[in-house]
Input
Amino acid sequence: MRDPGASIRAQALDLLEELTTAEKLKLFDGDTPFWSGMADIALHQASHRHPWPAAQVARLGLTGLHFVDGPRGVVLEGGATTFPVPMARGASWDPDLEERIGEAIGREARTFGANWVAGVCINLLRHPGWGRAQETYGEDPVHVGAMGAAMTRGLERHAVACVKHFALNSIDSSRFLVDVEVSERVLHELYLPHFRDCVEAGAGSMMSAYNQVNGLWCGQHPTLLRRILKERWGFRGFVVTDFIFGVRDGVAALLAGQDLEMPFRMVFAGCLPEAVADGRVPMRCIDEAVLRLLQVQLGVPPGTYPRSLRSCGSHRALAREAATSSIVLLRNEGPVLPFSGLSSLAVIGRLASVANLGDRGSSDTRPLPGVVVTPLDGLRAAAPDLRIEQTSGSSAQAAAELAARCDAAVVVAGLDWRLEGEHIHPGDIAPILRLVPPPGWMLRLLGRRRLMPLWRPLAHLFAWITSFASARPGGDFAAGDRTDLSLPADQLALIRQVAGANPRTVVVLMGGGAVLMEDWHRLVPGLLVLWYPGEQGGAALADVLLGRVSPSGRLPFSVPARASHLPPFEPRARQVVYDLWHGYRRLQRDRHGATYPFGFGLSYSRFTASDLTAVLQRADGRMDQLQASVSITNAGDVDAAEVVQLYLEPPAREVERPARTLVAFQRLHLAAGTSRRITMAVPLRACATFDPARDGFVTEAGAHRLVVARHVEDDGLAVTLELEAAFVGR
Output
């Protein structure tokens, strides 16, 4: 029996000595056979039925790593809590809340026998048309990094956190094809800092992406996986492939720093034994990867977790808190909200009375029947004495007539899984399937000589079947990336008709990415974003509409006035260049005001900032940092939460830089009429640029202006701090 007091590394080294070479090699891929596993996915939706095992060695008592997806909650059938999608939680700007959600998801995962959770999706939202926008937190690396690190910390208390997808993965429809060209400076300043934040928060695993970066597949990219992740950042966990199609060349992948192929025995299993035998892969590389896998597995917190934790009272309350904190109020003319003095309310739109939780890809959750609180359910439960009349809005004229008969109207519109989400193009995965040997029964039936010429078209056929693996019964599947960012025409007509019939109309938008609204948003006095709000979303909406809670969400991305103000976006692109300019950075550079800017959100109260100060704090043995302190006052008569945002405006630029970037933020709740002084720390790296010649971050000499603002376009309150030119680290 192993000594529980011995260090994890010492135990892992002992195990490494006991493992045979064959046992070591079996640790490099999932423990499920390929063909039976693929059939299980395609025919039985296996990803929603059981965790995926890896790294089990019964002889040595290694019970293994058991993987489950979980960005909005554990995806397995059985009653796990469905939280708002990460983009919604990004709108809360609340890392403390996100850490608690991570803990809850980790606890619930353990009740299913899973101890490894892919709940930290932190690819930047480069373009709001990305089909998986809902799975990340926003467009800015500081904001995304803080939220991702919080989720990582929460998960790691109970399970291994899996951070994904490393790196530059933000187009869904061509993720198996696209080659992203990016400079060293852009890579280190914009597309890697949030991954580093999660590594520093203690992530046990990192998932490589499907796409290429500068001509190399991410799953076998030595610069990303070995030189940056493991050597520069000191990552001590293991690297896992994205599922099924993450390795193209097994030897190149292992040498580059890939440690585990999931979820099946595939490319690694087919090439590593021979590569080790003939010396192409040295045993030191094998042992390094195995040691990482052993240490992470041995570090999984012990204990048993009862089924009663799933959707328990505290987790449901947490889901409601998250949904409420995520709601962003964009317009409130009159003000029309919160509703008061109503005797009747029209609730209009198909989405008002259905469970709209997000896409139906890998992050799809399976709540029990009757658990999800829709907007209509939430309002009826919260206001039982209010006469609420509802229509789907299939007839805009009938909806307008209903609205005219009521004191106020709520139109629930926006997106669902039919308009955005994860999607597989079957032809893209066929070349990867051809790397896998045909199933044994086919070889026995036809023989290798007759079968192999047929294998190419058969792989295409199987790829087509696999593309439906995440579908609901009936063959439905998500639309993938969006090329049209407008609302559907029937929803626009509905909004116009209802707004014309009732001057107290509030539009509630659902979805994960931005919707263009410049042409219609001024027609309605009230407008808010509900996102995909999780199982308690309807209750949260009622809390805000009826004034029980002040809205406190802030936009985690910019809503542009025109699609032409965004970067080019081609869902089937084979090559694309990523630069510094997307989101609010691009809008600033091109002098385009947003319809609603990054960080924007209204409150039922009013906040003021005063007495902003900033100092440079020298840190022994750590990176120097700026510290900014400011006093925040709730000057209104409603208890409410505020999100304090700190932006940097650099000095006269020697190199091209964004005019203003987020460097820190803090959410705080204040009672009406009270004040609090807060301090925000800013690592100098966040104020610096990456210099490829020095292979690190450098600050520019001159006046750096720090601005506390309510959103990125707000004038705010500023203070100036002089910095010297200096190398501040890698």
The longest helix spans residues 448-466. The chain has four domains: 8-307, 326-420+480-587, 426-466, 605-729. The chain has 21 helices and 28 strands. The first strand starts at residue 32 and ends at 33.
